[in-house]
Amino acid sequence: IKWLLEHNMIHPSVLKKAKEIASEKFVFPKDILDALKKDEIVWKNYQAFTDTYKRIRIAYIDSARIRPEEFIKRLGNFINKTRENKQIGFGGIEKYY
């Protein structure tokens, strides 16, 4: 969002709300971080990823929490890709992280 704000890429009607969201501190859920820490290689690779990528991916996983099967699927996929030191693309936004 920061890049979008800096480049005036957000519609004026949602600009105020976007700034509020961008200024909020993201709290990484402990259970997700603990799952990543269980595998030394995963944790090492994860730490090397950019903060933006980590926030996007963890928020994506966390958003499925109300659907436990999907939550487990997303977390497992993220762990597998991170173990391979690969980032997951998502609709072209990877150029921003």
Q: What are the SSEs and their pairings?
A:
Elements: H1 2-6, H2 15-23, H3 30-37, H4 40-48, H5 51-62, H6 68-83
Helix pairs in contact: 4-6, 5-6
Mean pLDDT score, rounded? 85
Please count the beta strands (DSSP E, at least 2 residues each). 0
Order of helices and strands: HHHHHH
Could you describe the largest sheet, including whether it forms a barrel?
Answer: none
Radius of gyration: 15 Å
- Number of H- or I-type helical stretches: 6
Distance between the termini: 11 Å
Question: Fraction of residues in helices?
Answer: 55-70%
Looking at the structure, what is the overall shape?
Answer: globular
Query: What percentage of amino acids are in beta strands?
Result: under 5%
Derived structural class:
mainly alpha
Give the uncertain stretches in residue-range form. none
Structural features:
97 residues, globular, mainly alpha
Give a structural overview:
With 97 residues, the chain is an all-alpha fold. It has 6 helices and no strands. The protein has helices at residues 2-6, 15-23, 30-37, 40-48, 51-62, 68-83. The longest helix is centred in the C-terminal third of the chain and has 16 residues, at 68-83.
Structure summary:
Helix 4 (40-48) packs across helix 6 (68-83). The protein has helices spanning 2-6, 15-23, 30-37, 40-48, 51-62, 68-83.
